[in-house]
Amino acid sequence: MDLHIGGRHAIVCGASKGLGRACAEALAAEGVHLVINARGRDALEQVAAQISMRHSVTVTAVAADITTAEGREAVLSAGRAPDILVNNAGGPPPGDFRDWSDDDWHQALQNNMVAPIQMIKAVVDGMIERRFGRIVNITSGAVKAPIPALGLSNGARTGLTGFVAGLARQVAEHNVTINNLLPGPFETDRLNNTLAGEAKMLGITPEEAANRRRQTNPGKRFGNPTEFGQACAFLCGSNAGYIVGQNILLDGGAYPGTL
């Protein structure tokens, strides 16, 4: 399927590995030029070189902390005004809410709610003027089915979801869409860290925690990041303009509800 976005320009955050990298790869395969961001310079530049070589697109690596104003400015000034924005930042660590300080909560909100909103603010008016924009926020399946050990993430990402629900309806008439992708358990470092936290709480090994989690999923497996990247690219396509303000679960059927 041709998504008709060849030659467009995108910013993909958290793109040195995991789901962010998968999104960058999928967009590049469609001919989209990229500015990719993460904090680790060496890994990010290696990914940029690999993607550029495979897909013959321009890939600019910007090593910066996207949760800071300085980091966002570095990313936004590195290329042309983007047609596509993929917001992605690592979630806060698991734990018990009794142990979290005000600073822990402020950091979680800054990283997973305020920073994505500031990125949207920086690019959305330009998208409106050009009458094309696709914004995808990578949040979490925990927005619909909260995970007790991830209370910081549950709270911050749900706040972003509520904000997007209103804004998406305001900009849709300009062919600018904002949607959220909610990953369940995918084979990423983030999942490994979460499983380690669960294992500690339950007094079992991470391997045992992983096996338990697999068995609770209807697919009896974890997701492959490539699957996630393809879904992201589809939402960024020219023909996806009627998908507005949605929270799309990619969790192998783990969420049991109908809504």
Q: How many strand units? A: 7
Structural class: alpha/beta
Task: Report how far the terminal alpha carbons are from each other.
Answer: 28 Å
Our estimate of the beta-strand percent is 5-15%
Percent of residues in helices comes to 40-55%
Order of strands in the sheet with most strands: 3-2-1-4-5-6-7
- Oligomeric status: single chain
Order of helices and strands: EHEHEHEHEHEHHHE
What do the pLDDT scores average to? 95
Poorly predicted ranges (pLDDT <50, ≥5 residues)?
Answer: none
Compute the CA-based radius of gyration. Answer: 18 Å
Molecular shape: globular
Major sheet size, sense and barrel closure: 7 strands, parallel
Family: Belongs to the short-chain dehydrogenases/reductases (SDR) family.
Organism: Marinobacterium nitratireducens
Protein name: Dehydrogenase
Textual characterization of the structure:
Helix 1 (18-29) runs parallel beside helix 2 and helix 6 packs across helix 7 (206-216). This protein is globular. The chain is α/β, with parallel strands linked by helices. Helix 5 (151-171) links the parallel strand 5 (133-138) and strand 6. It has helices at 18-29, 41-55, 69-76, 102-130, 151-171, 189-202, 206-216, 225-235, and strands at 9-12, 33-38, 59-63, 84-87, 133-138, 176-183, 247-250. The mean pLDDT is 95. The two termini are 28 Å apart. The longest helix is centred in the middle third of the chain and has 29 residues, at 102-130.
